[in-house]
Each structure stands twice: as C-alpha cells, then as structure tokens.
Give the backbone structure.
Amino acid sequence: DAEITQSPRHKITETGRQVTLACHQTWNHNNMFWYRQDLGHGLRLIHYSYGVQDTNKGEVSDGYSVSRSNTEDLPLTLESAASSQTSVYFCASSDSGASGTYEQYFGPGTRLTVT
Amino acid sequence: GQNIDQPTEMTATEGAIVQINCTYQTSGFNGLFWYQQHAGEAPTFLSYNVLDGLEEKGRFSSFLSRSKGYSYLLLKELQMKDSASYLCAVRGPSGGYQKVTFGTGTKLQVIP
C-alpha cells in the first residue's frame, strides 16, 4: 500500500545545530508540503513543492530550507536550530486533482525538541 | 491572505449530534476541507466541499455556503472515538491551487 513516512519520529537537538527531517512518499504525488503544529497556532505551512526541482516558501519559512531532487522525497533542513523551532512537524502530499480529489495525506509527524 | 475561524473547544454527549462551524475570509477560494486529528496523531481527511450545499458521508456531513464564507461539519450519533480535533482548511488559489490554509482546529470532547 502507498504511504508517507517521516524520520526520525522524535529528535532532541541543541541550539545552533543543523537538523534534517526526512519525508518519503510512495503515492507518486507531485505535491509535497511541510507544516509545523504548535498549540494555539494550528498547522502552519513552512515550504511546499509542486514537483521535482520546484520549491516554494510558506508562511513560516525563515530558518528552514527544502530541496526536491525526486518525486518521493522532500527533506526539511533547519539550518541552525533555535528553541522557537521546537514543534511537531508534519509532511503531507497530494496529487494534482487528476483523480478528482485534492486531499492531503499526512505523515505520522516528527516531534523536535531544541534545547 | 486567508483568515479561518472556528471554535476552540466543544463538548457533546455520546449519541447526540454536534455541529462545528467554520467561517473564512480568503483572497481566493477553491474548496474547503475538514480533517480529523486525534491527539498525538496525524490529520486524516474527512470531507471536501467546492460547491454550495451539503455533502453526506455516513455519520459525517459537511455544508458549504461560499457567499457567506461559512461551513459546518455535522457529526451524528456521536461515539467516544469521535473525541478529536477537527480542522477546517481552505484551498488556494493564493499561492497556488494545491496550497491549503488550516484553521486552528476545534477540540471536541465526547462525554458519556
């Protein structure tokens, strides 16, 4: 069955370190998204991609970067981790509506703590 | 930009009906989603409305009025497992047709 996975599921890191969160989907979806979820803010979009070599900034992109070298993967990098980036991170993917649905499929999430 | 409002918390009784409202103000509109999210888990898709009216899926129904910028999710025959957060989300076109903006969610507690 197709799925979307994230790794690691839990990560503790120190302020100033570079951290990369992995996201891998086997749906063959063109669209991939990274969100962070914090109490009181809901899901906020960090970066998104509509296909290979395409990346776009979301509403809270400062301090984060992504790259899309293939259809399956969209890794999220925190260049220099800050305590304000402690959060739960969700990756999601969707197709382009050819099947009539635009729903996003979410990965299980990565809980990141920056100390 | 997009502004989405929904109540923070609601409580309802097992077996009852509950309606969760969502109002939105957007610079463009291409559909509205409802997602369910249990504590500690990922959001899962419930419904998608792009035209005005009611969409029914078993115990769950979703309504949309584009002219009023209003939607609701109706849950019937509530079960304890329906205790979760319910997220309203609006799709593009601001930022592209696939981009979705989420509300902060409504935490529903179902009590016996």
Observations:
- DSSP finds no helices and eleven strands in chain B.
- Chain B touches chain A at residues 31, 33, 41-45, 48, 87, 89, 91, 95-105 (CB under 8 Å).
- The radius of gyration of chain B is 14 Å.
